[in-house]
Design goal:
The protein is 80% helix and 0% strand. By secondary structure, it is mostly helical. The model has no long low-confidence stretch (mean pLDDT 86).
Length: 79
């Protein structure tokens, strides 16, 4: 992953050594967040396309998706 490589290089330049395990944990965490975001997108699309969509469920799914997007953005920023 290019982003992980850039973060690793930046941290090394700052004098912090990042272990392989830290990278693996971070990549795994980011992957889990992306998967959950995609699952919410699928649920949202299915609900919006129902004949009588549940607007409160749609609102909840959108809120959850936004929260995950915020987490993904925060996690991808260099420390």
């Amino acid at each position: 992953m290019q982003t992980a490589s850039l973060i690793h290089d930046l941290l090394r330049l700052l004098g912090r050594r990042v272990s392989q395990k830290e990278n693996e944990v971070n990549n795994s965490h980011m992957s889990a967040l992306r998967i959950k975001h995609a699952e919410l997108e699928d649920k949202l699309e299915r609900e919006e396309n129902r004949p009588l969509p549940d607007t409160s469920l749609i609102h909840s799914l959108k809120k959850q998706k936004l929260h995950l997007k915020d987490l993904l953005t925060q996690e991808s920023l260099p420390a």
